[in-house]
Amino acid sequence: DKCRAGEWPYAMNTTWGCPYKCTYCAARQTGWNQRNIHLIDREIGHAMELGVKNFSILDDCLNVTEKHVIAVSTTFARYNTEWSCVNGLRADTLTDAGARAMSKSGCRTVGFGIETSNEELLLKIKKGETLTAIERGLAIARDNFDSISGYLILGLPGSSYEVDARTIEWAVDQGVYLHVSFWVPEEVDNFEINTDGKLVNKTTMKDRLFYGEGAVPGPTYDPVQMQALMDSAAGLAWGSARDIRANIKGRWRALSQHGPRAARRLIRMDIAKAWRKVARR
């Protein structure tokens, strides 16, 4: 009912798995498999017949190839509907042709896993992207989409308060909605047999992310500083009506600390999202 009313998007996948090596991601190096485009077409058509008004793609990585992006976009274009991809896009593989195809077919909202603006950390977490490539992808996105989100991780191994603070400042300057999480290591029990033939528990640490209001800062640096950075990003995303006060403060902070360009980008995205929400009703 909420999908038919336009309150919730219809969630679907066009691929599954991801070939990249990002250390913190459960989908890393799981391969990359494309669904048959005719099956995607049938699913969209059936959902539209049931009254669905908009769609959300939840691929681990939609844009491994430009060819697949254009094929999916061409399929959506036949149905004159709105869709988004707020989870599975890489900035470095976003092309002008792919972004134009997405936009023309009804894609208005996109999101990128940025994680950090620090080149050394990007290498350490095996992101496979450079900051230059990320900025190029975000520039393409700004030219084609109404709403752009960036997902950041505070406290990555080897990071610091200063590094993470610069990442948030950089992201605000880029004019994207900010979504921030904490990196927290998780202990994993690995049992091995030593040279004496005895079973030994060798505890190792595994990457893990904590999202949402219940997230707890990790041990990389002072948790009070880490929480302060998390709080500094409050109000810099698209929020519901109950978050309007935080949103206004966030836009004022962007204006006062980063100048009119950063605030103008946020407000322009706000207006576009609000207009589409009204139009769907």
The shape, in one word, is globular
> Which series of helices and strands comes N to C?
EEEHEHEHEHHEHEEEEHHH
Relative helix content: 40-55%
Distance between the termini: 13 Å
Radius of gyration: 20 Å
DSSP strand tally: 11
β-strand amount: 15-25%
Give the helix/strand class: alpha/beta
Largest sheet: 7 strands, mixed
Number of helices: 9
Task: Give a verbal description of the structure.
With 281 residues, the chain is an alpha/beta fold. It contains nine helices and eleven strands. The strands form three sheets. A seven-stranded mixed sheet has the order 1-4-5-6-7-8-11. Strands 2-3 form a two-stranded antiparallel sheet. The protein has a two-stranded antiparallel ribbon with strand order 9-10. Helix 6 links the parallel strand 7 and strand 8 (177-183).
Q: What is the compact description of this entry?
A:
This protein is 41% helix and 22% strand.
Using brief descriptors, characterize the structure shown.
281 residues; alpha/beta; two-stranded antiparallel ribbon; 9 helices; 11 strands; 41% helix; 22% strand
Map the helices and strands.
Layout: E1 10-12, E2 15-16, E3 33-34, H1 37-49, E4 54-57, H2 66-77, E5 82-89, H3 96-104, E6 107-115, H4 119-124, H5 131-144, E7 147-154, H6 161-174, E8 177-183, E9 186-193, E10 199-206, E11 209-210, H7 223-232, H8 244-258, H9 260-280
Parallel strand pairs: 1-4, 4-5, 5-6, 6-7, 7-8
Antiparallel strand pairs: 2-3, 8-11, 9-10
Helix pairs in contact: 1-2, 2-3, 6-7, 8-9
